[in-house]
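Section 3.1: Structural characterization of target chains.
Under the original work plan, the team committed to producing a structural model for every single-chain target entering the pipeline before any wet-lab resources were allocated. The record below documents one such target. The sequence was received from the expression subgroup and is listed exactly as submitted; it comprises 109 residues.
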Amino acid sequence: MKIAAAILALLPAALAVDTCVAECGCAGCGQVASTSFVKSGSKEVATAAGWATMSVSDSKIAIENLSGSTLTVTVYGVVCYYISPHSSCTVGEPDNFSTALGMQVWQHP
């Protein structure tokens, strides 16, 4: 039992690894921000002040959660990622990726 308790105690730290999880469902979430992408040098960047940023460059999508909340960051119909509070991650850009619809940020309850 003590071993199981020790493993369970480490689980939140293990889950806090900077990882984007592809997840489009967000039951009970509320949209907190919506913003357009702007060109910044060789990148396209969307910034929702105090919430999240998404930058696209060299076939990579970098996401940073600036808030203390768990978020789902989306580009409608293209990508959606669950991201832990105060974390960042990088994922490959899917073939159908487009920044035309901007970035939306949803806060988990």
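The chain has a mean pLDDT of 84.
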